[in-house]
Design goal:
about 90 residues, alpha+beta, Glutaredoxin, 4 strands, about 25% strand, disordered N terminus
Length: about 90
């Protein structure tokens, strides 16, 4: 389902060192989403951000994945719901 994503499809791509295929589903005004952006940007980790309020396809994908809230961070088959620093650290390790 997410295989067709390209960096050009995203609203934001962080810069610096990369961890392949990180996708973060967010929504405008979400403080936990802002915390995740800061978390990745402070570490120079690239990610693809999909804002579910601005992108109907992203909202549909998020729901098909079984999630109803944001933020959701995906890398491969792994997912992290919310801003869970230990799980995010493990995701990028």
């Amino acid at each position: 389902m997410l295989d067709g994503l390209r960096n050009s499809d995203c609203e934001h791509t962080g810069r610096g060192n990369t961890v392949a295929d990180i996708v973060v589903y967010t929504m405008t005004g979400c403080p936990h989403c802002a915390a995740i952006r800061e978390f990745f940007e402070e570490r120079g980790i690239e990610y693809t951000e999909r804002n579910v309020l601005e992108d109907d396809t992203a909202l549909k994908e998020l729901r098909e994945l079984g999630f109803n809230g944001t933020p959701v961070t995906l890398k491969g088959d792994e997912s992290v719901l919310g801003f869970d620093r230990p799980k995010l650290e493990a995701l990028i390790a």
